[in-house]
Amino acid sequence: MAKDKPHMNLVFIGHVDHGKSTTVGRLLFDSGNVSEQQMRKLKEKAQELGKSGFEFAFVMDGLKEEQERGVTIDLAHKKFETDKYDFTIIDAPGHKDFIKNMITGTSQADAAVLVVAANDGVMAQTKEHLFLSRTLGVTQLIIAINKMDMKDYSEATFNQVKEQMSTLMKSVGYKPESTPFIPIASLPGDNVFAKTDKMPWASATLLDTINNLVVPDKPTTLPMRMPIQDVYNITGIGVVPVGKIETGIMKVGQKVMATPGREGKGVPGEVKSIEMHHSQMPEAGPGDNVGINVRGFGKKDIARGDVIGPAEAPPTVASEFTAQIVVLNHPSVITVGYTPVFHIHTAQIACQFVAIEKKLNPATGEVLAENPDFIKNGDAAIVRIRPVQPLVIEKQKEIPQMSRFAIRDSGATVAAGMCIDLVKKV
């Protein structure tokens, strides 16, 4: 059997109408991941809807409403193979109403392609998406400068936009000097999949650049953490928690602890067996979705949102934590006392804002105000949060995979952030 290629999640982000969906569609079509026949159908459909030129975008924009409005609303996932990698491509909405989907997509990504149009340059969402990528822990970035055909494939224009982007990236903490900038024209198909004679000065295609991404190291040296997704009670076996191992290695025979557990004190146990895709394994590591049988866990002891870790380094339960957040989509303002739901790993727990310590410039992170009365859309802030019930969260510096969260309220993502400090529950 052929060795599986390494897998990566790649998200396409950027301002509305800068050509994210078209770029993805072009990449999938030129690489043979979408057939001529499918493409012909989409082209006819685009013409019918009076949206000629949108056929590549339609590859990703499957929803009828999206096709009529010409805007990406939901997240689309598509498989894409190169000779080197298996990618899952996530096309994230640029439209600001749909930013919550963009957060979900970006927090799952190993790398991001930020698409910026040569004719517009840096726009509002270009900034917002860049900052969010940083906050959500995306370390690998490719900047694709699109619509070069609208600027006569001018190298000078490309350099201007590159300069603008570089300034912005530095302010957020990305290093432009180690980031690839690629000129493309997705609609005519220049430099996306294949080299073009229109831009002889371009050093690489988008495809080459994606192929040069580095598969992130699996966090096997960090303490083991497995957030519980579901708990099953299987006759003859007993209690089986199921979930994805985020960090570290789990082994059969290992002494573990599930925290907070029902009483909030943690539940000790020993791993009897680990099963993945219906086969038994001696151990499992980051990214593995497993079902495990643990001696000592009763059906009532554990639930979704609890986290399993080694007995000697159990998952941290916080009575309070300090977080850096960015407010994306709140109808008015956030003040002390606000208690929305925090989505962190598999837990969903109401948490109260007990202090707003600093308001930050979202682009640079510099402090704009100490102890402000409120924060609103577009603001970044350092806040102190108290969960209404015990919650497992880790510091960004220690276990970043367990530090990030989204804040939701009445069906919308209000903010996103990461834990930078915490008070352990005693």
Features:
single chain, 426 residues, alpha+beta, Rossmann fold, Elongation Factor Tu (Ef-tu), domain 3, 3 domains, 6-stranded antiparallel barrel, 8 helices
What does the model show?
With 426 residues, the chain is an alpha+beta fold. The protein has three domains: 7-211, Rossmann fold; 226-310, Elongation Factor Tu (Ef-tu), domain 3; 317-424, Translation factors (Elongation Factor Tu (Ef-tu), domain 3, Beta Barrel). Helices cover 19% and strands 35% of the residues. It is built from eight helices and 23 strands. The chain has helices at 20-30, 36-48, 55-60, 64-69, 99-107, 124-135, 155-172, 206-211; strands spanning 7-14, 76-81, 86-91, 111-117, 140-146, 181-183, 226-234, 238-244, 250-251, 255-259, 267-276, 279-281, 283-284, 289-295, 307-310, 317-327, 341-344, 347-360, 367-370, 380-387, 391-392, 404-409, 412-424. The protein has a six-stranded mixed β-sheet with strand order 2-3-1-4-5-6, sandwiched between helices. Strands 7-8-14-11-10-15 form a six-stranded antiparallel β-barrel. The model is unreliable at 61-67, 69-76 and 94-100 (pLDDT under 50).
* Termini separation: 51 Å
- CATH superfamily of the largest domain, by name, is P-loop containing nucleotide triphosphate hydrolases
Rg from alpha-carbon coordinates: 23 Å
Overall body shape: globular
Percent of sequence in beta strands: 25-35%
Given the structure, what is the number of helices?
8
Number of domains: 3
Give the strand tally. 23
Annotated CATH topology of the largest domain: Rossmann fold
Taking pLDDT < 50 over at least 5 consecutive residues as the criterion, the unreliable ranges are: 61-67, 69-76, 94-100
Q: What structural category characterises the helix and strand content?
A: alpha+beta
Question: Mean pLDDT, rounded to whole units?
Answer: 84
Strand arrangement in the largest pleated sheet: 2-3-1-4-5-6
Q: For the report, how would you describe the main beta sheet?
A: 6 strands, mixed
Q: CATH class of the largest domain, anyone?
A: Alpha Beta
Q: Which CATH architecture of the largest domain is right? A: 3-Layer(aba) Sandwich
Helicity level: 10-25%
